[in-house]
Design goal:
The protein is mostly beta strands. It has one domain. The protein is built from 1 helix and 5 strands, in the order βββββα. A 5-stranded antiparallel β-sheet has the order 1-2-3-4-5. β1 and β2 form a beta hairpin. The radius of gyration is 14 Å and the shape is globular.
Length: 106
Amino acid sequence: MAENNEERDIITLTDEDGNQVECEFLDTVELDGKLYCVVEPIVGSEDYEEGSCYIFHIAENEDGTVDLTPVEDENELNKAFEKFLENNASACSGECSGCAGCDDKK
């Protein structure tokens, strides 16, 4: 696997059980007036599989902090994922191992 020398944006998420999962921030997606955060776990856990991306609602609190909550509606999740793919189509190398969203895969 080739090393990527670009600096990655790493965030640490804490799930409802208090487990911390380091993730690479991939993108922010706006769809139907809502904001979504797309991340990929760096270190897997029972609930987060390495190599998969996860999409969360972004909600800004009155105090300026941000909450990320999982998207539970499958239709909404699929729409947000399609928008993420559309926004990042030019950045795709076609060499990802787990992505099913690219028509250029060999």
